[in-house]
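### Sample
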Amino acid sequence: MDRQRPQRRRAAVLAAVGALLAGGLAVAPTAAAAGPNLITNPGFEDGLSGWTVNNGNATDGATLAPTGDAHSGSGAVLVTNRKTTGSGPAQELAGKVQAGKTYTVTARVKYENPESPATKQFFVTMHYGGSTYTNLGTGTAPRGQWGLLQGTFTIPAGQSVTTPRVFVETPWVADPAAAPATHLMDFKVDDVVLREFTPSTTIEVLGKNPGEGNPLISHKFGADGNAFAHDGRVYVYMTNDTQVYNPGPDGTSPTNTYGGINTITVISSDDLVNWTDHGEIPVAGPNGLAKYASQSWAPAVESRVVDGKEQFFLYFANNGAATGVLVGDSPLGPWRDERGSLLVTAQTPGASDGRNWLFDPGVFIDDDGQGYLYFGGGGNDGSNSYENTNHPKSTRVIKLGDDMISTEGAAETIDAPLMFEAGHVFKRGGKYYYSYSSNFGFGGPIDPNGPPTGAIAYLVADSPMGPWTPDKYAGVIFKNPGVYFGAGGNNHQSVFELNGEHYFTYHAQTLNRRITGGATQGFRSPHVAKLEFNADGTVKEVLGTFDGVEQIRHLDPYRVIEAETIAWQQGLATKRLNAPNDVPQLALHDVDNGDWTSLSSADFGSGATGVSARVKPLVGGGSIQLRLDDRTGPVVATIPVDGPVGQWTEVGAELDGVSGAHDVYFTFVGPDGQDLVEVDSWRFAKPSLKVEGAADTRCAGPNAKLTVRVTNNESVPVDVVVQTPYGAKTFDDVEPGKTRFHPFQTRERALPAGAATVTATATVDGHEVSSALSVPYDARTCR
């Protein structure tokens, strides 16, 4: 098989995007109605129990009869002999609904009279008593097919709900009997669901098409992404926009004001396509580590050895007023507040001119170990002048102390053209690159020789301290996201190096736009692009795309894979399993029937023999379907989720013929309308090596001798390690068909029965496979 760098299916991606745009974005609510169904016998499986003919008016009348022609299950209701348009199946709701609360309603209807219109509108209606009627939900059904009625409604706070009744009807007309085939047709009803609306941040729409690399995640938002590469893995720390995402019944959230954000979201990847969600860091506010801070925006992370131990430093913006810092033992914490106060404030020497912001920290450590902090922004003095617009001089750089949680000396001013925010520095080829977001115009004329508004521009200097002056301006790295995605807004970036290549992170409202079908409310998502350079060291301009970057390595399926590691998904959320500031342990949750997740380019080598998952079943009868390369492709394995409900357990299934590199899709199956399962991790089983072992005991003089023999029945060389209570032996490159042995002189007169452990390792089709076996031996007594 091809062992080259994994390649993305760009043609498929473009086809999928084209189809999506051509057909219009399919929009589904992002807020789930998770309460119990308030309708008795909603699917008519118990005949007509709980149902009557609506009789709100004296002229109403109809006949209800059970039918087996159902939308789902085995039962539905047939409505015939209708006297009025309101003559339909009804159910009393006294004591079930409350004034001031919001509810969702759905129902299925079907009519078949060939003399009736080709399509017909139906309503689910509430009768509160007297003359008070309200249409709750509606839909248009094609003749001969089941149509969906749906709606969300709020009962007015002052509405009496002593005698509420819900029923299904056709639109009112004054004289329906004049055209009975149009207004009084027979129809069937099934699957009536009325639930109290429960807000949820779970995103149910398909926010990222399979094959796309951007946005990096589609189950939550994340802004101002700062990338930190460490030990072959990149961690992206983000402003947690999801914290203030509050979709209403129509799935649309109020505009993001950022004011309630006091946690930082972290994701990571070692291949740039499969991203692991590490949840949120509790930074500020009453439940945060830095309780003296109110917000945490625009994080930045770096590591440094302090007092002989590598420490990690998380800088954050306390809104526009200050910058703080936390310290951790790893890129994922646990984090602690060692300083006990904000790091940069208006009292920091040189930090403030009275109008500039003190946020958006960018941290850089030079080759000599000296740390620098870049911060600041804003600076509009209201003068509408050319000078203030193009040279607000609102950002700063200051040296950090050796402890990385203190500053040295005074901050120096950065004069970047059209400066606004998002200062960030990286080093390449002995040069220092300062990138930033340009402003949107402070009222004065904009210098045409500088950057365009709302773009990521950069300066190049010979020192981390610059001096950062207008003559160092080198151009634009990235235009405003609105140029590429049709949704603008603020701009924020970082640059990281991984495996010798440079990459650029930015954010855009792509997921927000897909949720709503085109509108945005300021909820941003992380993106990544390759950063390339010209021969003179200048940066090639980055274009915003859904493609993202190529996967730089295959995923290893023969390790424990956290279930919150996701390439593409739909309908899922994540939750933390442990304390907020512990090294995070997360799981998939809010898992409904039909939801799915996936892994990109998992390399199974010569073949996997099984797949397992650590799960907590929440209902009985669930399962997980496994597919390869296409989320609608053939099922290659089904994992029964058959453990005890409410308890963590291991479940699994056998696999046959799964070899080479594949995208892997997991689809969840179970009862509709219920949370099915939580999932902690996945794991695939390797094939066992064909290695045999044998052992015998003999007497060598007065002492016992143990001899262990190993035979390689594979077609490739095998490395073998033999471990016994009396020593260990390593056999390198045991050739196919060969046997190697080793005698262990025990110096014991009496040898109890026991077992030797034989661990074999080989490279099969370019993939390392290991197996272990226990080789028993008999007791021996020597004289």
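The chain has five helices and 51 strands. This sample (Arabinoxylan arabinofuranohydrolase) is used throughout the tutorial notebook.
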